[in-house]
Design a protein that fits this description.
16 strands, about 280 residues, Porin, single chain, 16-stranded antiparallel sheet
Length: about 280
């Protein structure tokens, strides 16, 4: 599995490096312009996102506070224009679990390197004259994890909605999605409401203050083990490396609500996002 993950990563990076030159008239040779477009979920901009996460846990289970996890994900975004201000998005999310603590009833075991459940969303977005935007679609996940303890063990699917607005200082918005299990898990049906809130404050020289923390609410969780909610902030910098725009970001999330038994307390996310030319 380690060799497979490394090969996949090398192939993805090589595709970015060997991509055709980005045309000058797209505005993608301007770091400030690219940074602002990347903050807009409805922008017609191709990208490969590589978020790397470190997570520290806490909870009432034995040794919960000493558990940490590492995860590398890959999320391509290749929007297809349908008309003025209207775009179609299909965005898979492929997680590689480098290290993850799993409670076996008496203590924690660390597992990795493994593939996690692959997520996806399919949505249509539109930006209105008021600079508000909406995206409506479906989101879900496939039970692709190479270990059962890292998987929901069933397909999930449900509606997705994004609302956001471009302002003079940046961008803000909220993503909300409801996921249901399409087949019952061994213990109970799955029903989770989740998403992320996001904001960007544009600074000079393509610097930004921004964050996109993820939240979730497990409707079938026991009391005290339903809500996961972080507060997050971070910085981002966009540069032009030759002909290729690259965005780097570093974020910190502190979880003000987390499952009592075992859940995240601190999270650091470092992301590398190359901007690529669209194939159409």
């Amino acid at each position: 599995m380690k060799k497979t993950a490394l090969i996949c990563l090398v192939i993805l990076i090589s595709q970015v490096i060997t991509a055709q030159e980005i045309e000058e008239n797209t505005g993608q040779n301007d770091a400030n312009a690219v940074a602002k477009k990347l903050a807009d979920p409805n922008a017609v901009l191709g990208s490969f996102a590589f978020p790397i996460d470190y997570i520290n846990y806490n909870g009432s289970l034995p040794d919960a506070s000493s558990q940490n996890a590492f995860k590398l994900s890959f999320q391509p975004s290749l929007p297809y224009p349908l008309g003025p201000g209207t775009n179609l998005f299909l965005r898979p999310l492929i997680p590689i679990i480098v290290s993850q603590p799993v409670f076996n009833g008496s203590g924690f075991n660390n597992v990795g390197v493994e593939l996690g459940d692959i997520g996806f969303d399919l949505a249509i977005g539109h930006t209105w004259p008021s600079k508000w935007l909406t995206l409506v679609g479906i989101a879900g996940s496939a039970p692709s994890a190479t270990l059962a303890t890292l998987s929901a063990r069933q397909w999930t699917l449900g509606p997705e909605l994004v609302v956001g607005k471009t302002t003079k200082w940046g961008f803000f918005g909220l993503l909300a999605a409801q996921s249901w299990g399409l087949s019952g898990a061994p213990d109970k049906d799955l029903s989770i409401t989740g998403g992320q809130y996001f904001y960007t404050i544009n600074l000079k020289n393509a610097w930004q203050i921004q964050a996109q923390p993820l939240y979730s609410y497990n409707h079938n969780g026991s009391s005290g083990n339903k809500l996961t909610l972080p507060l997050g902030t971070g910085v981002a910098k966009t540069i032009i490396a030759g002909k290729m725009p690259l965005k780097f970001s570093l974020q910190y999330w502190y979880y003000i609500e987390s499952p009592d038994n075992f859940g995240p307390e601190h999270q650091i996310r470092f992301s590398i996002i190359p901007v690529i030319p669209l194939p159409w």
